Amino acid sequence: MAEHEDVPHVRVAVVGAGFGGLGAAVRLRREGVTDFVVLERADSVGGAWRDNTYPGCACDVPSHLYSFSFAPHPDWPRTFSGQEHIRAYLEHVTDTFRLRPHIRFGSEVKRMAWDAEKLCWAIETSGGNLTADVVVSATGPLSDPRIPDIPGLDSFPGKVFHSARWDHAYDLRGKRVAMVGTGASAIQIVPSIQPDVARLTLFQRTPPWVMPRVDRAISGFERGLHRALPFTAQLRRGLLWGIRELQVQAFTKHPNELGFVEQLAKRNMARAIKDPSLRAKLTPDYRIGCKRILLSSAYYPALARPNVDVVASGLAEVRGSTVVAADGSEAEVDAIIFGTGFHVTDMPIAERVVGADGRTLAEAWKDGMRALRGASAPGFPNWMTIIGPNTGLGNSSMILIIESQLNYMADFVRQLGVLGGRVALDARPSARDAWDDRVQERMKRTVWNTGGCTSWYLDANGRNTTVWPGTTTEFRKVTRRVHLEEYEVLRAPRVPAEQRTPAAEARA
Questions:
Q1: Which is nearest to 313 in space by CA: 207, 210, 209?
Q2: Which of 55, 317, 496, 497 satisfies CB 3.0 to 4.6 Å to 324 for a cystine?
Q3: DSSP class of 74
């Protein structure tokens, strides 16, 4: 978009209507900013909780902690709620805070480019074009499924789909199914479909550590108590949060202390898996916590059933209807389900963001994602991301991180108002580097870097660009406000009066 005088202009454009985008919208309203839009490629809100509808889909963070502090929900039906309840919660938040007028559904961002002269972002979407002073990218790391490039997959005559794009029209009953991957989605899918399929072949490249999932229905009495006395729900949330804050040191500073937890996980496995050879296949050879610890009380019992085969190897090739593992073992299948994760360290949105020097964010991040305080990237003024580099958690609720980043976003917009006029903030490379150096130095001691595994936390260079190496309390402190000395203040040149247009005046 070379010219954009005649396209709509907003103060803030938010990309994505999941937890991050909806949270940003609520926070902007609370800051008195009503001139904003939320650009959503789908036809409804929910993000990952809209897209993931596979059997057994549920959260592995307790419900009362996996919700906004400003929108408590006393009526969670279970201690670990399912996908449909979380999606319903996000719909409720959207309606309660009257966000729908701000949301543009069917508006996938195709390209956004920084206009250095006008100090704004020119945004092209599938639903029309617009410009914005500030862009808040809340697309999330779990939005674009990743299917590995498997030789022969294109010629497979059966059904193929990713867990995040579940085909509900395809009936798995009586089918021979290959499940590829053993991550958080797979351990929920396997016990859900195992009773119905004729045969289930699980391709396990690396076994996960699995702890019991202590899930139960929340009683009517508890829900009524939380409605009548809201502080009881706050107390419940506080206890859940506090326990996880105390666990952080074992992950970040003293990984050897996790040996006791490993023994608990092994006992959990031994209760369900009596076959020594299968138990050997399922026992990880890395420190617990190095990969995400998974929660399930049904996964191991399902693997012990006679119609399940565990292949301790990744899928290497497809020959017609035969799937071939890297160890050479074969199986005839009717359907292949990929539970192979998402583009986390190479987010596709980065290819669509063009900065001040004409480079895309993907090009700027070709050697690894880095952002000042997990939000701002040098060369991309007035652009920030929610759940950016090194903001992930290994043991607690991402909603806590999101709310901290919303504090930072709010102060960012506030500072622009204080500076006045047509102004932008561009992160200084030196500030970004200093921040990243501190994060990576702390990362050296963590279980994610020393635990002896290869995980999706690490990028192609083996660098941990995903996890925050500290507590959520620490993260909230370091994102409480914008430090202007970490940014270059950009101001647009003054336009002579005879050259001003109404659209330009509106942006001034």
A1: 207
A2: 317
A3: T
Tell me, yes or no, whether 64 and 204 share the same domain.
no
Please give the pLDDT value at position 4.
56
421 in a structural domain:
yes
CA distances from 123 to 7, 128, 259, 278, 415 (A): 10, 9, 50, 53, 23
**For residue 305, what are the domain limits?**
153-214+239-338
Domain boundary among 284, 314, 338: 338
Separation between Cα atoms, residue 161 and residue 182, nearest integer Å: 16
Using the Cα atoms of residue 390, residue 396, residue 397 and residue 401 in order, give the sign of their dihedral. Answer: negative
84-97 per-residue burial string, b: 16 or more CB within 10 A, e: under 16: ebbbebbbebbeeb
Whether 93 and 28 share a structural domain: yes
What does the chain come to in residues? 508
Kind of pairing, strands 9-15 and 128-137? Answer: parallel
pLDDT at 508: 47
Tokens 């008195």, located at residue:
32
Closest alpha carbon to 288 in 88, 447, 56, 455: 447
Tracing tokens 């006393």 back to the chain, one arrives at 74
Task: Identify the CA nearest to 149 among candidates 180, 118, 126.
Answer: 180
Shared-domain flag, residues 206 and 269 = yes
The structural domain count of the chain equals 2
Torsion of CA 158, 164, 170, 175, to 10 degrees: 60
User: 104: part of which helix (H) or strand (E)?
Assistant: strand 103-104
